[in-house]
Specification:
The structure holds 2 protein chains of 2 kinds.
Chain A: H1 3-18, H2 25-48, H3 57-74, H4 79-101, H5 106-126, H6 128-131, H7 153-175, H8 178-188, H9 190-195, H10 200-226, H11 236-249, H12 254-270, H13 278-292, H14 300-315
Chain B: E1 5-14, E2 17-27, E3 32-36, H1 43-50, E4 58-63, E5 66-67, H2 73-79, E6 81-83, H3 96-103, H4 105-108, H5 112-117, H6 121-137, H7 153-166, E7 171-175, H8 183-198, E8 202-206, H9 210-216, E9 219-224, E10 227-232, H10 234-238, H11 241-250
Parallel strand pairs in B: 3-8, 3-9, 6-7, 7-8
Antiparallel strand pairs in B: 1-2, 1-4, 4-5, 9-10
Helix pairs in contact in B: 3-6, 3-7, 6-7, 7-8
Classes of the chains: A mainly alpha, B alpha/beta.
The structure holds adenosine-5'-triphosphate (ATP) and magnesium ion.
Amino acid sequence: MRIRTVFFLSLLYAALIVLPHFLKYHQQDFLIFLTINILVVVSYRLVTLTGEWSLIHAVMMGVGAYTSALISKNFDISFWITLPLAGVMAGLVALLLSYPLFRMTQFYFLIGSFAAGEAIRLTWIQFIKPFGGTGGTSAIPSPELMNIDFLEPIPYFYLVLIVVSICVYLLYRIENSRIGLTLHAVHWKGVLAESVGVNTWNYRTLAFVIGSLFVGIAGALKVHYIGTVAPKQFDIGFMVFILIWVIVGGYRTFYGAIIGAVVLSILDEILRGVEQLRPAIYGATLIFFILYLPGGLESLPQKIRQKFRANRESAT
Amino acid sequence: MTPILEVKNLTMRFGGLLAVDNVSFSVNEGEIRGLIGPNGAGKSTTFKMIAGFLSPTSGEVLFRNNNITNQRSSRIASAGVVRTFQETTLFQELTVFENVLIGTHKQAHTNIIAAVLGLDRQKQNEAIEATTEVLEFMGLAERKNQLAAELPLGLQRALAVAISLAAKPNLLLMDEPFAGMNPEETRHMMELTERVRESGVSIVLVEHNMKAVMGLCDRLVVLNFGTVLDDGTPDQVRNNPNVIQAYLGGG
Ligand SMILES: Nc1ncnc2c1ncn2[C@@H]1O[C@H](COP(=O)(O)OP(=O)(O)OP(=O)(O)O)[C@@H](O)[C@H]1O
Ligand SMILES: [Mg+2]
Protein backbone atom coordinates (compact mmCIF):
# COMPACT_ATOMS: atom_id res chain seq x y z
CA MET A 1 0.00 0.00 0.00
CA ARG A 2 1.13 3.50 -0.71
CA ILE A 3 1.84 5.90 2.13
CA ARG A 4 -1.02 8.12 1.06
CA THR A 5 -3.49 5.26 1.18
CA VAL A 6 -2.29 4.20 4.60
CA PHE A 7 -2.57 7.76 5.85
CA PHE A 8 -6.03 8.23 4.40
CA LEU A 9 -7.31 4.93 5.77
CA SER A 10 -5.92 5.62 9.26
CA LEU A 11 -7.68 8.96 9.31
CA LEU A 12 -10.90 7.42 8.07
CA TYR A 13 -10.88 4.70 10.71
CA ALA A 14 -9.93 7.10 13.48
CA ALA A 15 -12.90 9.23 12.46
CA LEU A 16 -15.20 6.21 12.30
CA ILE A 17 -14.15 5.08 15.77
CA VAL A 18 -14.91 8.39 17.46
CA LEU A 19 -17.88 9.35 15.27
CA PRO A 20 -20.64 7.31 17.00
CA HIS A 21 -19.86 8.95 20.34
CA PHE A 22 -21.01 12.28 18.94
CA LEU A 23 -24.23 10.94 17.46
CA LYS A 24 -27.75 10.65 18.80
CA TYR A 25 -29.27 7.24 19.33
CA HIS A 26 -31.15 7.04 16.03
CA GLN A 27 -28.14 8.40 14.20
CA GLN A 28 -26.05 5.58 15.60
CA ASP A 29 -28.62 3.14 14.19
CA PHE A 30 -28.34 4.90 10.89
CA LEU A 31 -24.56 4.55 10.93
CA ILE A 32 -24.84 0.81 11.53
CA PHE A 33 -27.26 0.29 8.64
CA LEU A 34 -25.18 2.47 6.36
CA THR A 35 -22.07 0.41 7.10
CA ILE A 36 -23.97 -2.79 6.37
CA ASN A 37 -25.32 -1.29 3.15
CA ILE A 38 -21.76 -0.62 2.02
CA LEU A 39 -21.17 -4.36 2.10
CA VAL A 40 -24.44 -4.83 0.21
CA VAL A 41 -23.40 -2.57 -2.67
CA VAL A 42 -19.80 -3.74 -2.82
CA SER A 43 -20.88 -7.38 -3.01
CA TYR A 44 -23.45 -6.44 -5.65
CA ARG A 45 -20.64 -4.85 -7.61
CA LEU A 46 -18.91 -8.22 -7.92
CA VAL A 47 -22.05 -9.67 -9.49
CA THR A 48 -22.36 -6.77 -11.94
CA LEU A 49 -18.72 -7.06 -12.99
CA THR A 50 -19.71 -9.84 -15.37
CA GLY A 51 -22.30 -7.54 -16.91
CA GLU A 52 -25.37 -9.12 -15.34
CA TRP A 53 -27.60 -6.85 -13.29
CA SER A 54 -29.54 -9.23 -11.11
CA LEU A 55 -32.63 -8.32 -9.11
CA ILE A 56 -32.11 -11.05 -6.56
CA HIS A 57 -29.36 -9.50 -4.46
CA ALA A 58 -31.72 -8.19 -1.76
CA VAL A 59 -33.31 -11.61 -1.44
CA MET A 60 -29.87 -13.23 -1.13
CA MET A 61 -29.25 -10.88 1.76
CA GLY A 62 -32.48 -12.24 3.22
CA VAL A 63 -31.31 -15.83 2.75
CA GLY A 64 -28.30 -15.06 4.90
CA ALA A 65 -30.44 -13.17 7.39
CA TYR A 66 -33.00 -15.96 7.81
CA THR A 67 -30.29 -18.62 7.99
CA SER A 68 -28.42 -16.93 10.80
CA ALA A 69 -31.56 -15.81 12.64
CA LEU A 70 -33.34 -19.15 12.59
CA ILE A 71 -30.34 -21.29 13.40
CA SER A 72 -29.19 -19.12 16.27
CA LYS A 73 -32.69 -18.82 17.68
CA ASN A 74 -33.96 -22.37 17.26
CA PHE A 75 -30.79 -24.33 17.92
CA ASP A 76 -29.17 -21.95 20.34
CA ILE A 77 -26.02 -21.76 18.24
CA SER A 78 -23.67 -18.83 18.67
CA PHE A 79 -23.81 -15.83 16.33
CA TRP A 80 -20.13 -16.32 15.61
CA ILE A 81 -20.95 -19.61 13.92
CA THR A 82 -24.21 -18.60 12.27
CA LEU A 83 -22.63 -15.49 10.73
CA PRO A 84 -20.36 -17.45 8.37
CA LEU A 85 -23.14 -20.01 7.88
CA ALA A 86 -25.33 -17.19 6.58
CA GLY A 87 -22.76 -16.54 3.88
CA VAL A 88 -22.37 -20.21 3.03
CA MET A 89 -26.12 -20.71 2.71
CA ALA A 90 -26.59 -17.65 0.48
CA GLY A 91 -23.68 -18.87 -1.66
CA LEU A 92 -25.21 -22.35 -1.95
CA VAL A 93 -28.63 -21.00 -2.92
CA ALA A 94 -26.91 -18.83 -5.54
CA LEU A 95 -25.07 -21.86 -6.87
CA LEU A 96 -28.33 -23.80 -7.26
CA LEU A 97 -30.06 -20.85 -8.91
CA SER A 98 -27.18 -20.25 -11.30
CA TYR A 99 -28.13 -23.33 -13.34
CA PRO A 100 -31.50 -22.01 -14.49
CA LEU A 101 -30.62 -18.30 -14.29
CA PHE A 102 -27.47 -18.34 -16.39
CA ARG A 103 -29.31 -19.91 -19.27
CA MET A 104 -30.64 -16.38 -19.64
CA THR A 105 -28.77 -13.17 -20.35
CA GLN A 106 -29.46 -9.46 -20.23
CA PHE A 107 -33.16 -8.57 -19.94
CA TYR A 108 -34.26 -12.17 -19.45
CA PHE A 109 -31.72 -12.62 -16.70
CA LEU A 110 -33.04 -9.50 -15.00
CA ILE A 111 -36.61 -10.78 -15.04
CA GLY A 112 -35.57 -14.35 -14.24
CA SER A 113 -33.58 -13.23 -11.22
CA PHE A 114 -36.54 -11.17 -10.02
CA ALA A 115 -38.89 -14.13 -10.38
CA ALA A 116 -36.52 -16.45 -8.53
CA GLY A 117 -36.16 -13.90 -5.75
CA GLU A 118 -39.91 -13.49 -5.39
CA ALA A 119 -40.28 -17.26 -5.22
CA ILE A 120 -37.90 -17.33 -2.27
CA ARG A 121 -39.59 -14.40 -0.57
CA LEU A 122 -43.02 -15.98 -0.97
CA THR A 123 -41.65 -19.11 0.65
CA TRP A 124 -40.80 -17.07 3.73
CA ILE A 125 -44.33 -15.67 3.73
CA GLN A 126 -46.17 -18.93 3.07
CA PHE A 127 -44.27 -21.24 5.39
CA ILE A 128 -45.12 -19.83 8.77
CA LYS A 129 -43.09 -22.66 10.19
CA PRO A 130 -40.13 -22.09 10.35
CA PHE A 131 -39.98 -18.62 8.74
CA GLY A 132 -42.77 -16.82 10.58
CA GLY A 133 -44.88 -15.58 7.68
CA THR A 134 -45.39 -11.93 6.77
CA GLY A 135 -44.54 -10.77 10.26
CA GLY A 136 -41.30 -12.69 10.24
CA THR A 137 -39.46 -13.92 13.30
CA SER A 138 -38.49 -11.88 16.33
CA ALA A 139 -36.35 -12.31 19.39
CA ILE A 140 -33.24 -13.10 17.41
CA PRO A 141 -30.40 -13.42 19.91
CA SER A 142 -27.68 -10.82 19.74
CA PRO A 143 -24.00 -11.78 19.66
CA GLU A 144 -22.23 -12.75 22.84
CA LEU A 145 -18.60 -12.03 23.54
CA MET A 146 -17.13 -11.57 27.00
CA ASN A 147 -19.29 -8.97 28.70
CA ILE A 148 -19.88 -6.69 25.74
CA ASP A 149 -23.50 -5.56 25.41
CA PHE A 150 -24.22 -5.85 21.70
CA LEU A 151 -27.73 -4.52 22.20
CA GLU A 152 -26.08 -1.12 22.51
CA PRO A 153 -25.43 0.59 19.16
CA ILE A 154 -21.81 1.59 19.72
CA PRO A 155 -20.40 -1.89 20.40
CA TYR A 156 -22.53 -3.30 17.60
CA PHE A 157 -21.27 -0.61 15.27
CA TYR A 158 -17.69 -1.61 16.02
CA LEU A 159 -18.55 -5.23 15.35
CA VAL A 160 -20.18 -4.30 12.04
CA LEU A 161 -17.27 -2.06 11.14
CA ILE A 162 -14.78 -4.88 11.63
CA VAL A 163 -16.77 -7.52 9.75
CA VAL A 164 -17.67 -5.18 6.89
CA SER A 165 -14.09 -3.92 6.60
CA ILE A 166 -12.75 -7.46 6.31
CA CYS A 167 -15.38 -8.43 3.74
CA VAL A 168 -14.91 -5.27 1.68
CA TYR A 169 -11.16 -5.80 1.73
CA LEU A 170 -11.56 -9.38 0.51
CA LEU A 171 -13.87 -8.21 -2.29
CA TYR A 172 -11.34 -5.55 -3.20
CA ARG A 173 -8.61 -8.17 -3.41
CA ILE A 174 -10.77 -10.35 -5.63
CA GLU A 175 -11.54 -7.52 -8.01
CA ASN A 176 -7.89 -6.56 -8.27
CA SER A 177 -6.65 -10.08 -8.81
CA ARG A 178 -6.43 -12.17 -11.94
CA ILE A 179 -10.05 -13.15 -11.30
CA GLY A 180 -11.15 -9.52 -11.57
CA LEU A 181 -9.38 -9.18 -14.91
CA THR A 182 -11.05 -12.34 -16.16
CA LEU A 183 -14.48 -11.15 -15.01
CA HIS A 184 -13.91 -7.97 -16.97
CA ALA A 185 -13.05 -10.04 -20.03
CA VAL A 186 -16.19 -12.13 -19.60
CA HIS A 187 -18.28 -8.99 -19.45
CA TRP A 188 -16.90 -7.07 -22.40
CA LYS A 189 -16.00 -9.76 -24.93
CA GLY A 190 -17.26 -13.12 -23.79
CA VAL A 191 -16.46 -14.87 -27.07
CA LEU A 192 -12.90 -13.58 -27.09
CA ALA A 193 -12.48 -14.75 -23.51
CA GLU A 194 -13.83 -18.19 -24.46
CA SER A 195 -11.42 -18.33 -27.39
CA VAL A 196 -8.44 -18.21 -25.04
CA GLY A 197 -9.91 -20.78 -22.68
CA VAL A 198 -12.06 -18.83 -20.22
CA ASN A 199 -15.17 -20.75 -19.26
CA THR A 200 -17.53 -17.78 -19.12
CA TRP A 201 -20.29 -19.79 -17.45
CA ASN A 202 -18.02 -20.70 -14.53
CA TYR A 203 -16.89 -17.13 -14.03
CA ARG A 204 -20.42 -15.76 -14.08
CA THR A 205 -21.34 -18.38 -11.50
CA LEU A 206 -18.30 -17.55 -9.39
CA ALA A 207 -19.17 -13.86 -9.26
CA PHE A 208 -22.80 -14.61 -8.44
CA VAL A 209 -21.96 -17.09 -5.69
CA ILE A 210 -19.26 -15.00 -4.02
CA GLY A 211 -21.36 -11.82 -4.26
CA SER A 212 -24.29 -13.66 -2.67
CA LEU A 213 -22.06 -15.11 0.04
CA PHE A 214 -20.98 -11.67 1.19
CA VAL A 215 -24.44 -10.14 1.02
CA GLY A 216 -25.67 -13.09 3.09
CA ILE A 217 -23.23 -12.01 5.79
CA ALA A 218 -24.56 -8.46 5.51
CA GLY A 219 -28.09 -9.81 6.02
CA ALA A 220 -27.09 -11.63 9.18
CA LEU A 221 -25.38 -8.50 10.55
CA LYS A 222 -28.57 -6.53 9.98
CA VAL A 223 -31.13 -8.81 11.61
CA HIS A 224 -29.05 -9.65 14.65
CA TYR A 225 -29.08 -5.95 15.42
CA ILE A 226 -32.75 -5.30 14.72
CA GLY A 227 -33.77 -8.52 16.43
CA THR A 228 -36.41 -9.24 13.78
CA VAL A 229 -36.24 -10.78 10.34
CA ALA A 230 -39.14 -10.29 7.92
CA PRO A 231 -39.75 -10.67 4.15
CA LYS A 232 -40.46 -6.96 3.78
CA GLN A 233 -36.84 -6.08 4.61
CA PHE A 234 -35.62 -7.75 1.42
CA ASP A 235 -38.31 -6.84 -1.08
CA ILE A 236 -37.96 -5.28 -4.51
CA GLY A 237 -38.16 -1.86 -2.88
CA PHE A 238 -34.84 -2.46 -1.13
CA MET A 239 -33.41 -3.93 -4.35
CA VAL A 240 -34.28 -0.69 -6.13
CA PHE A 241 -32.34 1.20 -3.46
CA ILE A 242 -29.30 -0.98 -4.13
CA LEU A 243 -29.56 -0.28 -7.86
CA ILE A 244 -29.92 3.45 -7.28
CA TRP A 245 -26.91 3.54 -4.97
CA VAL A 246 -24.75 1.75 -7.53
CA ILE A 247 -25.95 3.76 -10.51
CA VAL A 248 -25.75 7.13 -8.77
CA GLY A 249 -22.36 6.32 -7.30
CA GLY A 250 -21.02 4.89 -10.54
CA TYR A 251 -19.94 1.38 -11.37
CA ARG A 252 -16.67 1.96 -13.14
CA THR A 253 -14.54 1.91 -10.01
CA PHE A 254 -14.65 0.01 -6.76
CA TYR A 255 -15.41 3.17 -4.79
CA GLY A 256 -18.33 4.40 -6.86
CA ALA A 257 -20.97 2.22 -5.25
CA ILE A 258 -19.70 3.09 -1.76
CA ILE A 259 -19.90 6.80 -2.51
CA GLY A 260 -23.42 6.33 -3.87
CA ALA A 261 -24.61 4.44 -0.80
CA VAL A 262 -23.10 6.96 1.60
CA VAL A 263 -24.24 10.13 -0.15
CA LEU A 264 -27.76 8.95 -0.86
CA SER A 265 -28.28 7.45 2.57
CA ILE A 266 -27.25 10.73 4.18
CA LEU A 267 -29.57 12.60 1.83
CA ASP A 268 -32.31 10.19 2.80
CA GLU A 269 -31.62 10.79 6.48
CA ILE A 270 -31.81 14.54 5.99
CA LEU A 271 -35.17 14.11 4.23
CA ARG A 272 -36.61 12.27 7.21
CA GLY A 273 -38.81 15.26 8.04
CA VAL A 274 -40.54 15.28 4.66
CA GLU A 275 -41.56 11.65 4.54
CA GLN A 276 -44.04 12.00 1.63
CA LEU A 277 -41.45 13.59 -0.63
CA ARG A 278 -38.73 10.96 -0.22
CA PRO A 279 -39.71 8.59 -3.04
CA ALA A 280 -40.18 11.48 -5.46
CA ILE A 281 -36.81 12.97 -4.60
CA TYR A 282 -35.14 9.58 -4.95
CA GLY A 283 -36.73 9.02 -8.34
CA ALA A 284 -35.78 12.48 -9.53
CA THR A 285 -32.20 11.96 -8.35
CA LEU A 286 -31.93 8.73 -10.29
CA ILE A 287 -33.30 10.22 -13.51
CA PHE A 288 -31.02 13.21 -13.12
CA PHE A 289 -27.97 10.99 -12.79
CA ILE A 290 -28.85 8.73 -15.69
CA LEU A 291 -29.36 11.76 -17.91
CA TYR A 292 -26.60 14.11 -16.84
CA LEU A 293 -23.98 12.07 -15.05
CA PRO A 294 -24.12 8.52 -16.40
CA GLY A 295 -20.66 7.89 -14.98
CA GLY A 296 -22.06 8.46 -11.49
CA LEU A 297 -20.73 10.53 -8.62
CA GLU A 298 -17.29 8.99 -9.02
CA SER A 299 -16.92 10.75 -12.37
CA LEU A 300 -17.81 14.14 -10.89
CA PRO A 301 -14.26 15.34 -10.06
CA GLN A 302 -13.11 14.50 -13.57
CA LYS A 303 -16.14 16.21 -15.09
CA ILE A 304 -15.47 19.37 -13.08
CA ARG A 305 -11.83 19.35 -14.06
CA GLN A 306 -12.77 19.04 -17.74
CA LYS A 307 -15.24 21.88 -17.40
CA PHE A 308 -12.60 24.13 -15.85
CA ARG A 309 -10.13 23.30 -18.55
CA ALA A 310 -12.71 23.99 -21.26
CA ASN A 311 -13.55 27.32 -19.65
CA ARG A 312 -9.92 28.29 -19.42
CA GLU A 313 -9.36 27.36 -23.05
CA SER A 314 -12.34 29.34 -24.27
CA ALA A 315 -11.16 32.30 -22.16
CA THR A 316 -7.75 32.41 -23.80
CA MET B 1 2.59 -39.11 -38.40
CA THR B 2 -1.02 -38.49 -37.41
CA PRO B 3 -2.46 -35.16 -38.46
CA ILE B 4 -2.91 -32.53 -35.75
CA LEU B 5 -6.45 -31.87 -36.96
CA GLU B 6 -8.92 -34.00 -38.84
CA VAL B 7 -12.25 -32.66 -40.01
CA LYS B 8 -14.63 -35.42 -41.02
CA ASN B 9 -17.86 -34.91 -42.96
CA LEU B 10 -18.57 -31.67 -41.18
CA THR B 11 -22.01 -30.25 -42.00
CA MET B 12 -23.79 -27.13 -40.85
CA ARG B 13 -27.36 -26.36 -41.79
CA PHE B 14 -28.90 -22.96 -41.02
CA GLY B 15 -32.60 -23.57 -41.65
CA GLY B 16 -32.80 -24.19 -45.39
CA LEU B 17 -29.20 -23.17 -46.05
CA LEU B 18 -26.43 -25.74 -46.15
CA ALA B 19 -23.57 -23.44 -45.14
CA VAL B 20 -21.08 -26.29 -44.81
CA ASP B 21 -21.81 -29.53 -46.60
CA ASN B 22 -19.92 -32.71 -45.79
CA VAL B 23 -16.50 -31.09 -45.57
CA SER B 24 -13.44 -33.22 -44.78
CA PHE B 25 -9.79 -32.25 -44.65
CA SER B 26 -6.78 -32.65 -42.40
CA VAL B 27 -3.91 -30.52 -41.15
CA ASN B 28 -0.41 -31.86 -40.51
CA GLU B 29 1.81 -30.91 -37.60
CA GLY B 30 3.77 -27.77 -38.40
CA GLU B 31 1.80 -27.04 -41.52
CA ILE B 32 0.22 -23.80 -42.69
CA ARG B 33 -3.00 -24.95 -44.26
CA GLY B 34 -5.03 -22.51 -46.32
CA LEU B 35 -8.83 -22.54 -46.36
CA ILE B 36 -10.03 -20.40 -49.23
CA GLY B 37 -13.14 -19.76 -51.24
CA PRO B 38 -15.51 -17.01 -52.36
CA ASN B 39 -17.60 -14.97 -49.89
CA GLY B 40 -20.19 -17.07 -48.13
CA ALA B 41 -18.44 -20.34 -48.97
CA GLY B 42 -18.59 -21.49 -45.34
CA LYS B 43 -15.02 -20.82 -44.19
CA SER B 44 -15.83 -18.94 -41.00
CA THR B 45 -18.61 -21.38 -40.21
CA THR B 46 -16.12 -24.24 -40.48
CA PHE B 47 -13.79 -22.44 -38.08
CA LYS B 48 -16.56 -21.84 -35.59
CA MET B 49 -17.45 -25.53 -35.60
CA ILE B 50 -13.83 -26.61 -35.13
CA ALA B 51 -13.36 -24.19 -32.23
CA GLY B 52 -16.65 -25.11 -30.56
CA PHE B 53 -18.49 -21.85 -31.15
CA LEU B 54 -21.12 -23.61 -33.25
CA SER B 55 -22.45 -27.15 -32.94
CA PRO B 56 -22.23 -28.94 -36.27
CA THR B 57 -25.37 -30.51 -37.66
CA SER B 58 -23.27 -33.62 -38.27
CA GLY B 59 -19.69 -34.74 -38.68
CA GLU B 60 -16.78 -34.69 -36.33
CA VAL B 61 -13.55 -32.88 -35.48
CA LEU B 62 -10.49 -34.74 -34.19
CA PHE B 63 -7.63 -32.87 -32.57
CA ARG B 64 -4.60 -35.13 -32.14
CA ASN B 65 -6.95 -38.08 -32.45
CA ASN B 66 -9.26 -36.84 -29.68
CA ASN B 67 -12.83 -36.16 -30.63
CA ILE B 68 -13.49 -32.53 -29.72
CA THR B 69 -16.81 -32.21 -31.53
CA ASN B 70 -19.40 -30.34 -29.46
CA GLN B 71 -17.01 -29.61 -26.61
CA ARG B 72 -17.25 -26.23 -24.94
CA SER B 73 -15.21 -23.58 -26.77
CA SER B 74 -13.16 -22.71 -23.67
CA ARG B 75 -12.25 -26.37 -23.26
CA ILE B 76 -11.15 -26.71 -26.88
CA ALA B 77 -9.05 -23.57 -26.45
CA SER B 78 -7.46 -25.00 -23.31
CA ALA B 79 -6.67 -28.18 -25.24
CA GLY B 80 -4.68 -26.04 -27.70
CA VAL B 81 -7.00 -25.03 -30.55
CA VAL B 82 -7.33 -21.25 -30.59
CA ARG B 83 -9.21 -19.18 -33.16
CA THR B 84 -9.01 -15.55 -34.13
CA PHE B 85 -12.02 -13.60 -35.32
CA GLN B 86 -12.84 -12.27 -38.76
CA GLU B 87 -14.10 -8.97 -37.35
CA THR B 88 -11.44 -7.30 -35.22
CA THR B 89 -12.26 -8.53 -31.74
CA LEU B 90 -10.31 -6.93 -28.91
CA PHE B 91 -10.86 -5.56 -25.44
CA GLN B 92 -11.01 -2.05 -26.87
CA GLU B 93 -11.14 -0.33 -23.46
CA LEU B 94 -8.02 -2.09 -22.12
CA THR B 95 -4.36 -1.53 -22.87
CA VAL B 96 -2.42 -3.62 -25.34
CA PHE B 97 -0.66 -5.26 -22.41
CA GLU B 98 -3.88 -6.15 -20.59
CA ASN B 99 -5.35 -7.58 -23.78
CA VAL B 100 -2.49 -10.02 -24.17
CA LEU B 101 -2.44 -10.73 -20.44
CA ILE B 102 -6.02 -11.99 -20.67
CA GLY B 103 -4.77 -14.33 -23.38
CA THR B 104 -2.54 -16.08 -20.83
CA HIS B 105 -5.60 -17.44 -19.04
CA LYS B 106 -4.58 -21.07 -19.45
CA GLN B 107 -1.35 -20.64 -17.51
CA ALA B 108 -2.50 -17.92 -15.10
CA HIS B 109 -6.01 -18.86 -14.02
CA THR B 110 -6.29 -19.16 -10.30
CA ASN B 111 -8.73 -19.95 -7.53
CA ILE B 112 -10.33 -17.43 -5.27
CA ILE B 113 -8.40 -18.31 -2.13
CA ALA B 114 -5.04 -18.04 -3.87
CA ALA B 115 -6.12 -14.78 -5.48
CA VAL B 116 -7.16 -13.22 -2.18
CA LEU B 117 -4.10 -14.39 -0.26
CA GLY B 118 -1.72 -13.63 -3.11
CA LEU B 119 -0.50 -17.23 -3.22
CA ASP B 120 -0.54 -17.13 -7.01
CA ARG B 121 2.00 -14.34 -7.30
CA GLN B 122 4.64 -16.55 -8.92
CA LYS B 123 2.16 -17.72 -11.52
CA GLN B 124 0.98 -14.19 -12.23
CA ASN B 125 4.55 -12.99 -12.65
CA GLU B 126 5.16 -15.77 -15.15
CA ALA B 127 2.06 -14.70 -17.04
CA ILE B 128 3.39 -11.15 -17.14
CA GLU B 129 6.69 -12.44 -18.51
CA ALA B 130 4.91 -14.51 -21.13
CA THR B 131 2.87 -11.46 -22.09
CA THR B 132 6.01 -9.38 -22.53
CA GLU B 133 7.53 -12.09 -24.69
CA VAL B 134 4.51 -12.27 -26.96
CA LEU B 135 4.41 -8.48 -27.27
CA GLU B 136 8.04 -8.45 -28.32
CA PHE B 137 7.49 -11.31 -30.73
CA MET B 138 4.62 -9.44 -32.40
CA GLY B 139 6.46 -6.11 -32.41
CA LEU B 140 3.97 -4.50 -30.05
CA ALA B 141 6.27 -3.92 -27.10
CA GLU B 142 6.50 -0.13 -27.48
CA ARG B 143 2.74 0.12 -27.69
CA LYS B 144 1.98 -1.90 -24.61
CA ASN B 145 0.50 0.94 -22.56
CA GLN B 146 -1.70 2.24 -25.35
CA LEU B 147 -5.40 1.47 -25.44
CA ALA B 148 -6.29 -1.20 -27.98
CA ALA B 149 -8.87 1.14 -29.53
CA GLU B 150 -6.14 3.66 -30.34
CA LEU B 151 -4.04 1.31 -32.48
CA PRO B 152 -4.02 1.58 -36.28
CA LEU B 153 -5.89 -1.24 -37.98
CA GLY B 154 -2.81 -3.25 -38.93
CA LEU B 155 -1.63 -3.33 -35.34
CA GLN B 156 -5.10 -4.18 -34.06
CA ARG B 157 -4.95 -7.28 -36.23
CA ALA B 158 -1.50 -8.06 -34.88
CA LEU B 159 -2.83 -7.61 -31.35
CA ALA B 160 -5.66 -10.05 -32.03
CA VAL B 161 -3.05 -12.61 -33.08
CA ALA B 162 -0.95 -11.75 -30.02
CA ILE B 163 -3.88 -12.49 -27.71
CA SER B 164 -4.35 -15.90 -29.27
CA LEU B 165 -0.61 -16.63 -29.16
CA ALA B 166 -0.57 -15.83 -25.46
CA ALA B 167 -2.92 -18.78 -25.05
CA LYS B 168 -0.04 -20.99 -26.25
CA PRO B 169 -1.95 -22.76 -29.02
CA ASN B 170 -0.83 -25.90 -30.80
CA LEU B 171 -3.18 -25.12 -33.62
CA LEU B 172 -4.08 -21.57 -34.59
CA LEU B 173 -7.15 -20.84 -36.69
CA MET B 174 -6.68 -17.42 -38.30
CA ASP B 175 -9.75 -15.86 -39.90
CA GLU B 176 -8.69 -13.25 -42.46
CA PRO B 177 -5.79 -11.72 -40.52
CA PHE B 178 -4.79 -9.68 -43.58
CA ALA B 179 -8.15 -8.05 -44.20
CA GLY B 180 -7.84 -4.29 -44.71
CA MET B 181 -4.06 -4.26 -44.44
CA ASN B 182 -1.85 -2.17 -46.70
CA PRO B 183 1.02 -3.92 -48.56
CA GLU B 184 3.53 -2.89 -45.90
CA GLU B 185 1.40 -4.30 -43.10
CA THR B 186 0.68 -7.40 -45.16
CA ARG B 187 4.39 -8.11 -45.60
CA HIS B 188 4.96 -7.66 -41.88
CA MET B 189 2.06 -9.94 -40.99
CA MET B 190 3.30 -12.61 -43.42
CA GLU B 191 6.67 -12.60 -41.69
CA LEU B 192 5.01 -12.90 -38.32
CA THR B 193 2.81 -15.76 -39.46
CA GLU B 194 5.85 -17.61 -40.75
CA ARG B 195 7.60 -17.05 -37.43
CA VAL B 196 4.61 -18.36 -35.53
CA ARG B 197 4.80 -21.54 -37.55
CA GLU B 198 8.55 -21.79 -36.91
CA SER B 199 7.85 -21.54 -33.20
CA GLY B 200 5.99 -24.84 -33.53
CA VAL B 201 2.38 -23.83 -34.05
CA SER B 202 0.32 -25.40 -36.82
CA ILE B 203 -1.92 -22.94 -38.62
CA VAL B 204 -5.12 -22.92 -40.61
CA LEU B 205 -5.42 -19.69 -42.54
CA VAL B 206 -8.65 -18.34 -43.99
CA GLU B 207 -7.76 -15.49 -46.32
CA HIS B 208 -8.85 -13.69 -49.47
CA ASN B 209 -5.44 -12.08 -50.05
CA MET B 210 -4.02 -14.49 -52.64
CA LYS B 211 -0.49 -13.18 -52.36
CA ALA B 212 -0.46 -14.06 -48.69
CA VAL B 213 -2.17 -17.41 -49.23
CA MET B 214 0.12 -18.52 -52.03
CA GLY B 215 3.20 -17.26 -50.21
CA LEU B 216 2.49 -18.89 -46.88
CA CYS B 217 0.43 -22.05 -47.29
CA ASP B 218 1.79 -25.54 -47.79
CA ARG B 219 -1.57 -26.91 -48.88
CA LEU B 220 -4.96 -25.41 -49.65
CA VAL B 221 -8.57 -26.49 -49.25
CA VAL B 222 -10.96 -24.67 -51.56
CA LEU B 223 -14.56 -24.32 -50.45
CA ASN B 224 -17.42 -23.29 -52.68
CA PHE B 225 -21.05 -23.16 -51.54
CA GLY B 226 -20.12 -25.21 -48.51
CA THR B 227 -18.45 -28.09 -50.35
CA VAL B 228 -14.80 -28.93 -50.95
CA LEU B 229 -13.91 -28.00 -54.51
CA ASP B 230 -10.24 -28.88 -54.37
CA ASP B 231 -7.52 -29.90 -51.93
CA GLY B 232 -3.84 -29.67 -52.81
CA THR B 233 -0.70 -27.58 -53.11
CA PRO B 234 -1.04 -23.93 -54.15
CA ASP B 235 0.24 -24.75 -57.64
CA GLN B 236 -2.24 -27.58 -58.12
CA VAL B 237 -5.14 -25.49 -56.92
CA ARG B 238 -4.18 -22.47 -58.97
CA ASN B 239 -4.35 -24.48 -62.16
CA ASN B 240 -7.62 -26.26 -61.42
CA PRO B 241 -10.19 -24.96 -63.95
CA ASN B 242 -13.06 -25.50 -61.48
CA VAL B 243 -11.38 -23.26 -58.95
CA ILE B 244 -10.75 -20.57 -61.53
CA GLN B 245 -14.37 -20.84 -62.60
CA ALA B 246 -15.64 -20.54 -59.00
CA TYR B 247 -13.60 -17.44 -58.34
CA LEU B 248 -14.47 -15.77 -61.63
CA GLY B 249 -18.11 -16.73 -61.39
CA GLY B 250 -18.61 -16.03 -57.71
CA GLY B 251 -16.61 -12.80 -57.62
N1 LIG C 1 -25.58 -17.84 -37.80
C1 LIG C 1 -25.97 -17.96 -39.08
N2 LIG C 1 -27.29 -18.11 -39.39
C2 LIG C 1 -27.69 -18.21 -40.66
N3 LIG C 1 -26.88 -18.22 -41.72
C3 LIG C 1 -25.55 -18.07 -41.49
C4 LIG C 1 -25.04 -17.93 -40.16
N4 LIG C 1 -23.69 -17.80 -40.23
C5 LIG C 1 -23.39 -17.86 -41.53
N5 LIG C 1 -24.48 -18.02 -42.30
C6 LIG C 1 -24.51 -18.17 -43.75
O1 LIG C 1 -23.70 -19.27 -44.07
C7 LIG C 1 -22.96 -19.02 -45.25
C8 LIG C 1 -21.48 -19.21 -44.96
O2 LIG C 1 -21.04 -18.15 -44.12
P1 LIG C 1 -19.54 -18.00 -43.65
O3 LIG C 1 -19.49 -16.85 -42.74
O4 LIG C 1 -19.05 -19.29 -43.16
O5 LIG C 1 -18.84 -17.64 -45.01
P2 LIG C 1 -17.30 -17.29 -45.28
O6 LIG C 1 -16.77 -18.32 -46.20
O7 LIG C 1 -16.59 -17.08 -44.01
O8 LIG C 1 -17.45 -15.92 -46.07
P3 LIG C 1 -16.54 -14.60 -46.04
O9 LIG C 1 -15.40 -14.82 -46.93
O10 LIG C 1 -17.46 -13.53 -46.55
O11 LIG C 1 -16.17 -14.38 -44.62
C9 LIG C 1 -23.34 -17.64 -45.70
O12 LIG C 1 -24.33 -17.76 -46.70
C10 LIG C 1 -23.90 -16.99 -44.48
O13 LIG C 1 -24.87 -16.03 -44.81
MG1 LIG D 1 -15.75 -15.50 -43.06
